[in-house]
Amino acid sequence: MKLIAITACPTGVAHTYIAEANLKKSAAKMGIDIVVETHGAVESEYHFTQDDISQADAVLIAADKVIDLRRFKGKRIFKVPVARAAKDASGLLSNIMSGALKPEMNSNSEALNSDDSETQSGKSTLSQLYIHLITGVNLMIPFVIAGGILIALSFSFGITAATPGDANFSPIAKMLSDIGGGAAFALMLPILSLGISKSISGNLGIVSGAVGGMLAVHTGAGFLGALFAGFLAGYITLLVVKYIHLPKAIAGLKPILMVPLLTVLLTGALMILVIGQPIRMLLEALTAFLQSMGNMNAAIMGLMIGVMVAFDMGGPLNKTVCMFAIGLMSTGIYEPIAACMAAGMVPPLGIALATTLFGRKFTAQERETGKVTYVLGLSFITEGAIPYAVSDPLRVIPAICAGSGLAGALSMALGCASRAPHGGVFVLFIPNVITHVLAYMFAIAAGAVFTAVILRFIKKDVNETLTEGVNDVNQHEESFERG
């Protein structure tokens, strides 16, 4: 059987490449001829040729975002979440070979053009909503990271160094603050809304999504308002496109005049008259609650954040929690994102530490890749824990959840805050970015050590031959380095 496969995760950082590596490895063992095209953050090393497509018996789409399928017209297409290929590639391929997994589209389907994500069969409503949400978040994250780090750099001159008239005023700090906060950060919510709307309704949803996001800013509805605005704009655009028809002679006016005018008007009116104020009040109540939390309540919240961040290691739950914490940054609350980052660093760091201290619990391959896992952990790439969790989920997942929960709880209880949404350990060296740096480092270290100690006691000793271990090292290193 000749199979061509596409792997893609929402962020395009880790799952995409772990799934690629596991599919190739499993296919080789099973005698399946497979080529994989990755749709990740970096350019794919291989692109399907026309011969690949024409000779393929089937197409496997292991993706959690919209993939254009037009070039596969006439092919059997199997669609699965990317996590399934990352965690159980052998089982997935076995199901395809045995017929247990049915193709979602037949060779005569006209729905092969999947630009309109709503037409994809087999997808639950919840799954579709998640894809739209993550598409918007992914579009927003570069603005958040660039803006957040530039703001953080401006703080390195002093917290008030960007304020004209202040004794510590620095023109460079003000420039960095204007670029990061005044421009990049200010676009965060409109871009989030734009991305969600575009995911739902295509390019026609861009204008109404952007305007809805801007109105979320103006009405004080914040990131919650931007979320609603994105979905609202996207579905209004779909309805307008579907039900508004013009005479053929003036049909060309529909995409350039009718759709933008009606969708912006409807989205804007609903945001101002119906949605904006209630969400603003809800956001204010949430903000007041978070600001009034005592140490105990903060620790409980940090514990919950930590467990959720670690549980699926970069999956939907992890992304949702991080998105919530990033959204709170727009209201001046920086403690949850600090807890997220600490908790997200712990799983790979704790596992890497365990491979160093308790080597007999891991295969030679796992011990070798543990060296790379340190780097992934320090870089806040939680997905580095996935290969270990896949091989022993019942022991590894509880251990990393416990460690991340501890790190999140300590981070919140000790009042740690971060003005950078990402960057891992590297932002610790920028002055004034992390509040209570030593306490923050203690929280991360405590979580990692706790994870490693738990693994010491609950993982079984490994007995493998040297040959088996060495043979697989290179493949996992390749996956990690790109992930």
Radius of gyration: 24 Å
Helix percentage range:
55-70%
Q: Helix tally?
A: 18
Count of β-strands: 6
Strand content of the residues, in percent? 5-15%
Quote the distance from N terminus to C terminus: 29 Å
Series of secondary-structure elements, N-terminal to C-terminal: EHEHEEHHHHHHHHHHHHHHEEHH
Q: Summarize model confidence as the mean pLDDT.
A: 81
Shape: flat
Described by strand count, sense and barrel closure, the largest sheet is: 4 strands, parallel
Domain PTS EIIC type-2: 129-468
Main location: membrane
Domain PTS EIIB type-2: 1-98
Membrane topology: Multi-pass membrane protein
Describe this structure in words.
This protein has 483 residues and is mainly alpha-helical. The protein is 64% helix and 6% strand. The protein has 18 helices and six strands. The strands form two sheets. The protein has a four-stranded parallel β-sheet. It has a two-stranded antiparallel sheet with strand order 5-6. It is flat, with a radius of gyration of 24 Å. The chain starts with a strand and ends with a helix. Residues 108-122 and 466-483 have low confidence and may be disordered. The chain crosses the membrane at residues 129-159, 179-197, 209-236, 256-275, 296-313, 333-359, 371-390, 396-417. It catalyses: D-fructose(out) + N(pros)-phospho-L-histidyl-[protein] = D-fructose 1-phosphate(in) + L-histidyl-[protein]. Its EC number is 2.7.1.202. This is protein-N(pi)-phosphohistidine--D-fructose phosphotransferase. Residues 1-98 form the PTS EIIB type-2 domain.
